Amino acid sequence: MITLTSDFGLKDPYVAEMKGVILTINPNATLIDITHKVEKYDIRMGAFILASAAPYFPKSAVHVAVVDPGVGTTRRAIIVQTKNGFFIGPDNGLLMIAAQAQGIEHIYEIANPKFMLTKVSSTFHGRDIFAPAAAHLDRGIAPQEFGPEVTDPVTPKFASVEHKNGALFGEVLHVDDFGNVITNIPKEDLQDGTLKVTLHHLTLQLALSETYAETKLHEPTALVGSHGFLELALNQGSFAEKFHVNAGDKVQVSAV
Q1: What does the pLDDT profile of the chain (256 residues) look like in tens digits?
Q2: How many CA atoms lie within 13 A of 219 on its CB side?
Q3: What CATH code would you report for 2-146?
Q4: How many CB atoms lie within 10 A of CB 112?
Q5: Alpha carbon distances (Å) from 121 to 14, 15, 126, 187, 226
């Protein structure tokens, strides 16, 4: 099974070209679209969506993700082998949250031209490098055949949380369509009770709830969302709109 995540949209032929390459090499591949509507060039959003969806696919699935503003530059193309499967994409941090959650075992650079298209465009590695690699990997080619092992992958700041003086320092990973603000602070780092939450322009004291509806209508709450991260939400409203919060905003959390 091969999943596809990108910022390509559906207007252009790019997604179809990737699928055509995969099926030409591996006609028996099962292809699943996670989304192709990641905001253009938004590595953070792509990383969150990939990390959210990947755990629900069968073991040994191959996840291809392409949000690649550095395509054609010196940034590497990589395969990340985890305890549960594989992630293929640019070495720009896009794969790291998802891969770390599954336990990284090895990372390899995709450097062997045998597993690329004959002609490699400098602007479309999704079709010419990532798609062929996924097809060959899904057919059973060993990951170490693709190139040398990588020991220094790019790990973005949004993939880690700082612990300092009893507080957690993170950032907003994603704002969903409901206006819920999803941070990068995992459930494991939180204590039950009331939290002091500081964003760039306000401070709130919020009880850590189990559901969105535990607070009054249109009142804010904090809870651990379905993907295991701290969320800031408004009961039947948009927290992001009310408090002017955007992806990438810094957030500080401590127990009251």
Answers
A1: 999 999 999 999 999 999 999 999 999 999 999 999 999 999 999 999 999 999 999 999 999 999 999 999 999 999 999 999 999 999 999 999 999 999 999 999 999 999 999 999 999 999 999 999 999 999 999 999 999 999 999 998 888 899 999 899 999 999 999 999 999 999 999 988 899 999 988 999 998 999 999 899 999 999 999 999 999 999 999 999 999 999 999 999 998 8
A2: 10
A3: 3.40.50.10790
A4: 15
A5: 13, 15, 10, 42, 39
CA distances from 96 to 6, 43, 85, 88, 200 (A): 15, 11, 13, 11, 26
CATH fold label, 161-255: Elongation Factor Tu (Ef-tu); domain 3 (2.40.30)
Residue 9 tokens read as 């949209």
